[in-house]
Amino acid sequence: MPLTRRRPPAATVLADPEECPAAVPETGGQRPFSEPATLRLRALHRAIADSRRGVPVLLTGRQDFVIAPAETLSAQGLAEFAALAAAAPLLLMAPARAAALLGRPLRLDQAAVAFPVASDLLAPAALRRLADPTLAQILPENLPELREPPIEAAAALALAKLARLLPAMLGAPAGADAAHRAAAMGLLTVPIEDVLAYPDTAAASLRRVAEARVPLADAPDARVVAFRAPDAGIEHLAIVIGRPEAAAMPLVRLHSECFTGDLLGSLRCDCGPQLRLALRRVAAGGDGAVLYLAQEGRGIGLVNKLRAYALQDRGLDTLDANRALGWGADERRFLIAATMLRELGIQRFRLLTNNPDKVAALAACGCDIAGREALIIPPNGVNDRYLATKAARFGHLLP
């Protein structure tokens, strides 16, 4: 099938393919952390965990800047934030979330938007309501005018996304001695560049850590290979059939994990049937792989996917629901798949996908794609609107 590329009319699904490294480095050192790398990587992992716990983090760069997640912030975390802040706090949000909150269009090409937080909103419950559109909403007229976002806003929202939290952060410049006071309070300090570089750094450093033969109903000769980055806890899996590394053009499928579809048999999506059909297609060819990527909900995580489902039940489609939560149309990183394929020795391959943007994204990451093969699952009466949205707004090539 020719590799024609059709851009979706209403949304750019993937990040600009030019942003992906032109090739996966053999050393796995995509924009490595500066020395001491191990300690800084450890600090970043702890900062991700602290964000999930509602603990403030101090970002360092042009200035010290304290941030705290709106979704998980507690009264204690708010007090710690106030102790480090040297100016009035700003609420930092993704532009799409702010547009949904304010009820008016905003430029979506900004990294973030910011607005001052009135004293009556500076409380954990109120901040959660501002961040989460599935909760009872605060009237937009209570919100002041938007401000120019600080340069640290992009890293603040990036940290929230790494923690799989709603991308809304409380932020403020910190005092000159903030690093010393943060250390005394047991709070972490993380360089901005480490936060921004982490996704590609982790993706390019993935390595095989375990494998075993796992006969499957749809692929009796399968084996499962686990991948993990050094000092990182997220594993991605490859279901390998035959010897794709020795085949001329093996068939490859990228499948983002879907708890509701793959395990529970949800009718809201086509993920479960696609996974099983992909395994049968690869097994029929004799050599190939299905990469099972830990990128639930196109990279937003299971909790946020459930929130998006709640918004879809109120009338939004899957794209607008993600945007109302502050997420992009597609938050996945395809350098992860490119690194896994390199580690498996798979070079030139055929890609099993309905999404031409996925072909372009992998090619931008250095993959040699010989062709695209469709993977069509008919609608089931429940997911008809979802499939129609994938075709109309995500550019998927569906009948």
TrEMBL record:
Catalysed conversion reaction: GTP + 4 H2O = 2,5-diamino-6-hydroxy-4-(5-phosphoribosylamino)-pyrimidine + formate + 2 phosphate + 3 H(+)
The keyword Transport appears for this protein: no
GO molecular function, one term: GTP cyclohydrolase II activity
Residues that hold Zn(2+) according to the record: C258, C269, C271
Ranges of residues in domain GTP cyclohydrolase II: 208-372
EC number: 3.5.4.25
UniProt keyword terms in alphabetical order: GTP-binding, Hydrolase, Metal-binding, Nucleotide-binding, Riboflavin biosynthesis, Zinc
Record note on cofactor: Binds 1 zinc ion per subunit.
Signal sequence segment: none
Cofactors (names): Zn(2+)
Enzyme class, spelled out: hydrolase
Record: residues binding GTP: R253, L254, H255, S256, E257, Q274, E296, G297, R298, T318, T353, K358
UniProt record, GO biological process: riboflavin biosynthetic process
Catalytic residues identified in the record: D330, R332
Pathway: Cofactor biosynthesis; riboflavin biosynthesis; 5-amino-6-(D-ribitylamino)uracil from GTP: step 1/4
Presence of keyword Hydrolase: yes
GO-annotated cellular components: cytosol
Family as reported in the entry's similarity comment: In the N-terminal section; belongs to the DHBP synthase family. Belongs to the GTP cyclohydrolase II family.
NCBIfam families reported in the protein's UniProt record: PRK00393.1, ribA
Purpose: Catalyzes the conversion of GTP to 2,5-diamino-6-ribosylamino-4(3H)-pyrimidinone 5'-phosphate (DARP), formate and pyrophosphate.
Protein name: GTP cyclohydrolase-2
Encoding gene per record: ribA
